[in-house]
Amino acid sequence: SRSLNLAVIPGDGIGQEVVSEGLKVLSAVLPQDVKLETKEYDFGAKRYRATGETLTDADLDALKRHDAILLGAIGDPSVPSGVLERGFLLKLRFAFDHHVNLRPSKLLPGVATPLAGQPEIDFVVVREGTEGPYTGNGGTIRKGTEHEVATEVSVNTAYGVERVVRDAFARAQARPRKKLTLVHKNNVLTFAGHLWTNIFNRVAKEFPEVTTDYIHVDAATIYLVTDPARFDVIVTDNLFGDIITDLAAAVSGGIGVAASGNINPSREFPSMFEPVHGSAPDIAGQGKADPTATVLSVGLLLRHLGYAGEADRIDAAVAADLTERAALGTRSTSQIGDALAARVAG
Amino acid sequence: SRSLNLAVIPGDGIGQEVVSEGLKVLSAVLPQDVKLETKEYDFGAKRYRATGETLTDADLDALKRHDAILLGAIGDPSVPSGVLERGFLLKLRFAFDHHVNLRPSKLLPGVATPLAGQPEIDFVVVREGTEGPYTGNGGTIRKGTEHEVATEVSVNTAYGVERVVRDAFARAQARPRKKLTLVHKNNVLTFAGHLWTNIFNRVAKEFPEVTTDYIHVDAATIYLVTDPARFDVIVTDNLFGDIITDLAAAVSGGIGVAASGNINPSREFPSMFEPVHGSAPDIAGQGKADPTATVLSVGLLLRHLGYAGEADRIDAAVAADLTERAALGTRSTSQIGDALAARVAG
Ligand SMILES: CC(C)[C@H](C(=O)O)[C@@H](O)C(=O)O
Ligand SMILES: CC(C)[C@H](C(=O)O)[C@@H](O)C(=O)O
Known about the structure:
The structure is a homodimer of 346-residue chains. Chain A is of the alpha/beta class and 346 residues long. The first copy, chain A, contains eleven helices and twelve strands.
């Protein structure tokens, strides 16, 4: 009999609520012969306030033993900006070499979008997850004085860029439209830009069926609101990916439905799956949070672990639920979870 | 009698067409007693291809003698990405210390926007223009090999950040809503983020009437499409400003109407005014380009030089023209210029 050994990190704010629903749907969709084991970890603001710890070496050793990680949300106004982000979220992405940060965007019929005319949106962003301006390189001199200088260093390696570009080409090749767009700012960030562009063009030769395209990140934000249908797969740097995936989420149904996977395709370390939204402390504990993004993240998790049929059922359940949502009125977090669990089981 | 001694840089693609209309409107709006002198410069792709030059020391000396610079657009597919951007546009911004990159966004009634429900949009972005990831710091080792490493260094100084933050507070103070939002990514780019945030909070104390706000750049792209009315004045770093102003232009009428000023408030060097759009080689020479963004840039130029009444007349003429546009059918570049010139003169 098979087993799925999951690390669960509810985290802060609405994290606990949405993760509960994610697990509910996971249990409902998993085949009977798969033994689901979950272990909860208490990372986040509470533990940081109590102990000063964000993520220790012992924590990393413990997490390593799981097949995958499901995360709710990390972040709280009581903790200074950057402490949990750099000390937990980014530390984990870097420690487990989550270099493929996968963020699909699909606008379903009937789902609200701020864009006029309900455009067709169905693309996936492959965001590099371990390099660029996210490495923490840089520093500050003469801090707090009028002569302070602060630097941030974006680090880009051929090794790091090639593996994510190759992953994105393979994903584009597997989709019906077979189109891959590189998003960068190679006219200004010429050092990193040339590296990305040259590797992209070289790897493209190995995928002759994939149509390629390049656009600057500033222009990409324009197309995301005027012509999102032009995108199929996008590959981009860590920071540009951070920015355009929030915009992509906003135009394709909101961050309430935006899922993400922090993936290590080699499976050397467990991959982590999390909704794109944050901890939303203003609505925490009120049963108002939408668990859909977490449920879709569970779908990405299942697909990553080889449960493609189960992942398809989750996607179909969410699609059906979203399409009918306008008629359903306001539902609580657990009501939405119940509805999705019923659909995937049925 | 007064004089206005203008450097004119038509540049590439549609640059010549839109600049002609900008000058047409400028002549029409200027008071009779102001002697307008213009000198045209041939910077851009053509000169680069002929001479290999983008902007020489002698060029900078010549430009320095003008009161202001009007630029159409620079860039052509025949020139490798980055050559004209770094060698001309950015070189000029840095040489003339254009640290206030001003980009207003206003959605006028009846103007097409990709957003549903015609939201209220009336804000201005103050983008830092001489620091951040735009300095050209960084480099490449082992170029072209599998061991290549490319870095980009974002440089942020207390001096550079404080002057632009102060400028933005003054602009917010002068507007009815008196609200200033800092956009950064201080939870990840903690070195630069702390510098920006600390200076922002310190300068805020000198402007007690101004309401302040902080949001991450990724979240800012969400608000720009879901709730653009929340913005009044935004101050941000060079790269974040580049990205969000293209999105801002897209939602508030398109880049055909987005103006910008590269301003040196000390007037030590002439400031440069240019439409946000590029050279659009695909429609160049066909009379299809919209000169509105250039005309609005002329308005920013006039306001910078102290011609506030004339700048108001340009804004009003553009507002009237845009509001009636849907009924007017397709017009050529020069027809739009003629209409605007007639309005400001009348
Ligand atoms: C919270 C933050 C560190 C994170 C990021 O910048 O990657 C978030 O914005 C995201 O997109 O997952
Ligand atoms: C052309 C390029 C150098 C420029 C920039 O990145 O600043 C442009 O995108 C802009 O916004 O003015």
